[in-house]
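Saturday, quiet lab. Running sequence design on the structure tokens for the scaffold JK sent over.
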């Protein structure tokens, strides 16, 4: 990929959920690094206020209205990006929200709405951008997953299932796109000090079942205590994304945060132990040689 696409900037980034939180921080870091940014979100005014206020960003920033659940809006946003910049080098699928509650406590409506954004919305945007990257024979698709995308936990089961889907989608994209010169990475942040645990980003199941008090109930209480006390620095997360995109050989998975590293190591050890304990039965189901 050329270092200086037309316009004098390094790359063109297309970022969803860019009006606040991690998305806005990534967009700001990309602009500061000399890139052009298509900042997509439902609230265009908030994007302009956050990223464009007080400075002339007309040449490098394109705020676009995008509800990722609307496939037509995704295509229109990509068309606008191509009209202004002529290419898209990096796609960051960041838009999404969480759901806190036991599986039985989670309503069908809340779960479906979350899937519409976290999974089907991600697919809408990805399908809209990939024809551009295939024509370029270059690009980088970055899907924001979670610590919960590698290991699920009580209280976040439905949310984790959406991020497990994102992990599977990204693994497949990695295999499908690599021969075309396009990278795919799934980023797995741990708990970062953003508004993710606020009501603006996290739906809490309204129905509480006492039998789950020691499991999902305990997680509900911890989430309240942890809110705005998370260990991860979101500014450092945004900086890490710049380093990721600059890499010649970016990874399929990028865990971010020592809590995510610990969770992955613990799950891998548990899987290895359980597989060893049940290997005889697991191996007994083949046809006899």
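Result came back. Writing it out in full:
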């Amino acid at each position: 990929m050329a270092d200086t696409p037309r316009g004098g900037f390094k790359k063109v980034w297309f970022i969803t959920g860019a009006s606040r939180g991690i998305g806005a921080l990534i967009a700001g870091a990309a602009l500061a690094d000399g890139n052009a940014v298509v900042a997509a979100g439902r609230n265009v005014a908030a994007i302009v206020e956050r990223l464009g206020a007080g400075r002339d960003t007309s040449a490098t920033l394109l705020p676009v209205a995008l509800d990722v659940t609307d496939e037509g809006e995704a295509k229109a946003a990509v068309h606008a990006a191509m009209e202004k910049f002529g290419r898209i080098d990096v796609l960051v699928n960041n838009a999404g929200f969480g759901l806190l509650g036991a599986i039985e406590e989670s309503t069908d409506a809340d779960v479906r709405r979350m899937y519409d954004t976290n999974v089907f919305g991600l697919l809408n945007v990805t399908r809209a951008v990939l024809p551009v990257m295939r024509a370029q024979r270059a690009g980088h698709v970055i899907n924001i997953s979670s610590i919960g995308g590698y290991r699920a936990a009580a209280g976040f089961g439905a949310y984790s299932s959406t991020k497990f889907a994102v992990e599977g989608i990204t693994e497949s994209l990695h295999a499908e796109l690599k021969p075309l010169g396009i990278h795919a990475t799934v980023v797995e942040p741990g708990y970062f000090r953003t508004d993710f645990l606020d009501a603006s980003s996290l739906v809490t199941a309204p129905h509480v079942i006492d039998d789950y008090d020691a499991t999902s109930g305990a997680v509900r209480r911890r989430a309240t205590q942890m809110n705005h006390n998370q260990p991860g620095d979101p500014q450092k997360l945004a900086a890490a994304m710049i380093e990721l995109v600059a890499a010649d050989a970016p990874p399929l998975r990028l865990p971010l945060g020592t809590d995510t590293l610990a969770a992955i190591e613990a799950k891998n050890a548990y899987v290895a132990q359980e597989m060893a304990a049940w290997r005889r039965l697991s191996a007994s189901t083949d046809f006899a040689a």
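Notes for JK: DSSP finds nine helices and nine strands in the chain. The CA atoms of residues 4 and 278 lie 54 Å apart. Ask whether to fix the surface positions before the next round.
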